[in-house]
Model the fold of this input.
Amino acid sequence: MEELKTLNTTILLIEKNGKILLGQKKRGFAKGFFIGIGGKQDPNETIEQTMIRETQEEIGVTPTKYERVGIIYFDTHYKGEHVNLILNIYKSTEYVGHPIETDEILPKWFDKKNIPYSLMLEDDKLWMEIVLAGKKVTGKVVFDENLKMQSNTIRECEGKEM
Done:
């Protein structure tokens, strides 16, 4: 059995005035797709510190009020390598700064009733609808090397399951 590398990652959904901030990836993993803001954990960094740093780097914003609302385990491919990827999902309603475009992300606000799911990864609709309804989410997703979802067990959960 192949021993897979594990990547700890974060994603942040910023909500304000009935809208959600997503970013269109301009390079790297998920290029061209709309995603939440986030990235990989650095050594000696907590997952919360990762979420804050990645948000600052990707859109120039610092979340000040946030909550961890989900964790999803992925069996996927990242930069040509088969990996286990752990996605820690956060939601924020308060932040400092104004979202800016960077070389990695083009931020865009969407009405919560008009999320561009057709321009997102297949699993996003499954967990995002749960999170936007104010609930917590967990599960596992298997993607093939072309980021096509093979299976999932995404579901609403209690906070203690994360």
